[in-house]
């Protein structure tokens, strides 16, 4: 089976190269649809310079254990019912933060569909934030 796969790749390298390229383009495009990923350092700069709002998508229990100062808790599980709370922040940049970055893209796509222009995601989520020894508020 594996030998046949390598034989196919060898015989159709152009086709396989095009497929791999399209796959990369697809994943890059999907990532940007949910908002550009930013690092922890860029998040701090964005909050200080442009008054960005941090939206923490984790549940209340995780949020209570520690969150970024000034973050608004809007759990992923109740986002659809509470999304209206963000309307007053439509003109500000929004940065979505979840546990490891897995939910922020989906919520980012929903917000962009609702007319939010400047939506970004914290790369790596709170796991990355705490790994960089950045402060959290309890």
Architecture overview:
- With 138 residues, the chain is of the alpha/beta class.
- The chain has two domains: 1-33; 34-131, Rhodanese-like domain (Oxidized Rhodanese, domain 1, 3-Layer(aba) Sandwich).
- The protein has seven helices and five strands.
- It has helices spanning 2-11, 13-33, 40-50, 60-65, 79-82, 104-113, 125-131, and strands at 36-38, 53-56, 72-73, 94-97, 119-122.
- A five-stranded parallel sheet has the order 1-5-4-2-3.
- The longest helix is centred in the first third of the chain and has 21 residues, at 13-33.
- The model has no long low-confidence stretch (mean pLDDT 90).
Which consecutive residue ranges, at least 5 long each, have pLDDT under 50? none
The secondary structure category is alpha/beta
Rg over alpha carbons: 19 Å
Q: Give the assembly state of these chains.
A: single chain
Set out the fold topology.
Elements: H1 2-11, H2 13-33, E1 36-38, H3 40-50, E2 53-56, H4 60-65, E3 72-73, H5 79-82, E4 94-97, H6 104-113, E5 119-122, H7 125-131
Parallel strand pairs: 1-5, 2-3, 2-4, 4-5
Helix pairs in contact: 2-6
Q: Keywords for this structure?
A:
Oxidized Rhodanese, domain 1, 2 domains, alpha/beta, 5-stranded parallel β-sheet, 138 residues
Provide a concise account of the structure shown:
50% of the residues lie in helices and 12% in strands. It is α/β, with parallel strands linked by helices and 138 residues long.
């Amino acid at each position: 089976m594996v030998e046949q796969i390598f034989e196919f790749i060898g015989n159709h390298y152009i086709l396989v190269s095009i497929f791999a390229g399209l796959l990369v383009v697809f994943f890059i495009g999907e990532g940007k649809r949910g908002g550009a990923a930013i690092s922890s350092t860029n998040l701090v700069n964005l909050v200080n310079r442009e008054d960005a709002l941090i939206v923490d998508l984790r549940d209340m229990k995780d949020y209570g254990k520690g969150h970024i100062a000034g973050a608004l808790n809007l759990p992923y599980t109740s986002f659809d019912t509470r999304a209206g709370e963000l309307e007053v922040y439509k003109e500000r940049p929004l940065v979505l933060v979840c546990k490891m970055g897995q939910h922020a893209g989906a919520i980012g796509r929903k917000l962009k569909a609702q007319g939010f222009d400047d939506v970004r995601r914290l790369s790596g989520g709170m796991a990355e934030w705490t790994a960089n020894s950045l402060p959290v508020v309890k």
